[in-house]
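Can anyone check this?
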Amino acid sequence: MVNLEWYRTFKAIYKTGTLTGAADSLFISQPGVSLHLSSLEAYVGYKLFDRTGRKMMPTERGKVLFNAVSEPLSKLEDVEKNFQKSTEKLTPTISVGMCFETFQTTLEQYVSTLPFNLIISFGQYPEMLDQLDKGILDLIITPKKGVSPNIEHEAFSSEQIILVGGKNVDTDSFQKIVQTKGAESIEDWLKQEKWYGTTGDMEHLFQFWIMNFGHKPNFRPNYIVPNLNSIIRCLKGGTGLAVVPDFLCKNEIENGDLKLIWEGEKKLGNTLYFGCRKKTNHQSEIDHIKGLFRKVMSKNDHVPHL
């Protein structure tokens, strides 16, 4: 008797038009898809698809077979889904987007305690807003608000962008320049130091520099590392400067591992928002994650809780 998985694979190829698409939809390997198709073609005795480049075009016999098996397979899949729902407790899955450093500093410590499944996504804020609007993400943590009418934003905390350095940085000479000289002298002093940056996002450094000196920095950091938490660990070696959000290095400054060098002539801050769709089936799970964020942020005395 024919293997039913061959028919399911045949239907997936017909629907997606490629072996790769069928493999992705069935969560099996592409060689497995090819094996199922060749086995079914050998069983029925005729070719089911013509291969044109990467596309799989059904033959006339393939179309006839699809029309014959499509509806029965759909009914069988519905029976399978209904049976699974009735016999297993369905655990909801929540997809949350944020930057990598925010995850490490806040939610990571609570993941093992969550009573639901969790998928964490890292990306740029415009991309996450788009994925939230499309239903790919259920919740995002962002300093930027989108314009979609389907998304609501709730302010819950704020961050200040500050200049920090290793404990061996000569802050006394810097403070004398700040108190007695102008912006040009301050900028010259800063440019003489070693700087850290990240591979993906230099926005904090650019904004801080523009706000205090009126232009983007005209130098490149000496050391480029994967993320902001890497910068903080490197600075604990004693030297170097970086511009980072204050809540990421609160403990290191309090412990004396890092120095708060300068908040800037003009302070640079961001409001942090929860972003979620106005209509969701996972409100209780989203509220649970929001509560964990508020719990962590409330411990940061100098990060205001809104």
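Reply from J.R.: I decoded it. The domain at 159-269 is CATH 3.40.190.10 (D-Maltodextrin-Binding Protein; domain 2).
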